[in-house]
């Protein structure tokens, strides 16, 4: 093989390597953007679910104890994960003026969302009470809105965690770690919360 042939082979191999690295870097960039957008969607759906739960608590349809507990849990979820803009969706009378309003995401976001799920499940655990609530004016509409928001939370969390898993798999590749193709992007983290829906809100019920 002549020097010119060797040069051509080396150049072709180098171009192939550069192209492969570009493909991986482009995919990783798309995955990071996918994680960011899916997290934004999940955050919006969590805010919507908490807002509907707060509206249910303030409607007067639940018993007094459940109203207080659901309202407080919804408030904590909104404060932990959203800013003041999200609080505009809450019905008048559902806000606790003694709880400071935070902005951005707090470390206890997952815990607050899980507590909201558990609290609402407890409040809607009695089938007879839920049936009576549905019979009330606006009661069925509120429960349907809560079920729809809850289902969208489950879907959004599933899509987000799948995007996180894909991104972490690509980031484990040797070429990514050696060449630091991820740049300064932080390692994405999945959202692990209790989002099991109350049985009374399930479609088959």
Short recap of the structure:
The protein is 67% helix and 0% strand.
Description of the molecule:
This protein is mostly helical and 205 residues long. 67% of the residues lie in helices and 0% in strands. Helix 1 packs antiparallel against helix 5 (139-171). The protein has one domain (29-201). The model is unreliable at 89-106 (pLDDT under 50).
Low-pLDDT stretches are 89-106
* Class from helix and strand fractions: mainly alpha
Average pLDDT score:
83
Radius of gyration: 24 Å
Tally of separate domains: 1
Overall, the morphology is rod-shaped
Q: Can you count the beta strands?
A: 0
Proportion in helices: 55-70%
Main beta sheet, described? none
Spatial gap, N to C terminus: 76 Å
Would you list the SSEs in sequence order as H and E?
Answer: HHHHHH
Question: What is the strand content?
Answer: under 5%
Tally of contiguous helical segments: 6
């Amino acid at each position: 093989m002549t020097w010119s042939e060797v040069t051509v082979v080396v150049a072709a191999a180098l171009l192939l390597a550069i192209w492969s690295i570009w493909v991986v870097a482009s995919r990783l960039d798309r995955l990071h953007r996918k994680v960011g957008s899916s997290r934004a969607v999940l955050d919006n759906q969590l805010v919507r679910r908490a807002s509907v739960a707060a509206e249910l608590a303030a409607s007067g349809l639940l018993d007094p104890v459940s109203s207080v507990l659901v309202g407080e849990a919804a408030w904590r979820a909104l404060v932990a994960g959203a800013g003041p803009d999200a609080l505009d969706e809450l019905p008048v009378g559902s806000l606790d003026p003694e709880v400071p309003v935070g902005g951005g995401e707090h470390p206890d976001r997952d815990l607050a969302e899980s507590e909201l799920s558990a609290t609402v499940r407890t409040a809607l655990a009695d089938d007879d009470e839920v049936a009576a609530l549905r019979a009330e004016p606006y009661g069925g509409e509120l429960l349907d809105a809560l079920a729809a928001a809850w289902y969208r939370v489950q879907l959004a969390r599933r899509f987000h965690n799948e995007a996180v898993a894909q991104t972490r798999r690509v980031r484990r590749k040797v070429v990514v770690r050696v060449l630091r193709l991820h740049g300064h992007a932080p390692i994405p983290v999945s959202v692990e919360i209790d989002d099991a829906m109350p049985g009374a809100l399930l479609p088959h019920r």
